[in-house]
Automatic annotation (TrEMBL):
Top-rank taxon: Bacteria
Record protein name field: Transcription attenuation protein MtrB
SUPFAM superfamilies: TRAP-like (SSF51219)
Family the entry assigns: Belongs to the MtrB family.
Natural source organism: Paenibacillus oryzae
Molecular-function GO terms, alphabetical: RNA binding
Length: 73
């Protein structure tokens, strides 16, 4: 089986305490990883065999190859 390795996402926190949560792939979607970012910290994430979705709580800029999104709070 070929590994599922996907796109990168860059997340820049605009406030203190932005939460980035990785969600699993498969029949049951679960949290598998969580990071807390301080203001102006940057996290680079990648979709993998285990990560099918990324949830962001807080004010942040999310950059992908498809464009940039600003979260609302």
């Amino acid at each position: 089986m070929e590994p599922t390795v996907g796109d990168y996402v860059v997340i820049k926190a605009k406030d203190q305490g932005v939460q980035v949560i990785g969600l699993t792939r498969g029949q049951d979607t679960r949290f598998h990883h969580m990071e807390k970012l301080d203001r102006n910290e940057v996290l680079i994430c990648q979709f993998t065999d285990h990560t099918s979705a990324i949830k962001i709580r807080g004010k942040a800029t999310v950059m992908t190859k498809y464009g940039t999104v600003e979260t609302d709070q």
